[in-house]
Design a protein that fits this description.
single chain, 201 residues, mainly alpha, 3% strand
Length: 201
């Protein structure tokens, strides 16, 4: 068998292995990893407290351009972000089809403090907006007499993270980074199938 043919046949397994490595540290149980939980909370709390800096966005854009210097489509997205970022909230940019949510979550999973710092203005605005939405939703649910909600997440999960979830049922867990959920289980299922197909391509 030729090396190219072997590589082609192994490609799906390599992708799955890489995906497992990337999400290995995405979830941790707070009972056994209190230091990790405190680190993540403290970091986000400190980023939120930082005074706005005009150079912070410039540093983020420069970091993105270095990272995607060979990708014309992503460079176009970066230029659009650079020109129009203030016209939309960080949450809108985070949820757009692109790379921002991937890169932000990867930095948190891998605990890359220097990279996280380069994205500080964006992370600050995103965390503030999410906190605001959370407060609004909690108030709305209380007014409607709802004390408990179920949300769904449409994504694959590695064996390690699945074991952490199973071992900590009805316990406090924490995610390194941000994640999106939905109250519609069918929509979450469709998203998970899309991610599964995308991983095979």
């Amino acid at each position: 068998m030729q090396p190219e043919q072997l590589l082609e046949e192994l490609q799906p397994n390599i992708r799955q292995y890489q995906q497992n490595l990337l999400i290995e540290k995405s979830i941790f149980d707070v009972q056994n990893k209190r230091a990790d939980f405190k680190w993540a909370r403290l970091l986000i709390d400190k980023l939120i407290q930082l005074a706005p800096e005009p150079k912070a966005k410039t540093e983020m854009v420069e970091t993105l351009k270095k990272h995607y210097h060979n990708n014309a489509a992503q460079l176009k997205f970066i230029d659009d972000f650079d020109r129009n970022e203030k016209n939309e909230s960080a949450l809108n940019w985070y949820t757009k089809e692109g790379f921002i949510y991937k890169i932000v979550n990867r930095m948190f999973r891998e605990e890359q403090i220097d990279e996280i710092y380069n994205y500080r203005a964006f992370i600050k605005e995103l965390a503030e907006r999410l906190n605001q939405l959370h407060t609004e939703q909690i108030k709305e649910y209380r007014e409607r007499g709802i004390s408990k909600i179920t949300v769904y997440r449409g994504t694959g999960i590695g064996n390690h993270d699945l074991e952490v979830l199973r071992a900590n049922e009805n316990q406090l867990i924490s995610f390194n980074g941000f994640l999106s959920t939905n109250m519609d289980d069918l929509l979450a299922f469709m998203v998970s199938q899309w991610h599964r197909l995308a991983a095979l391509i």
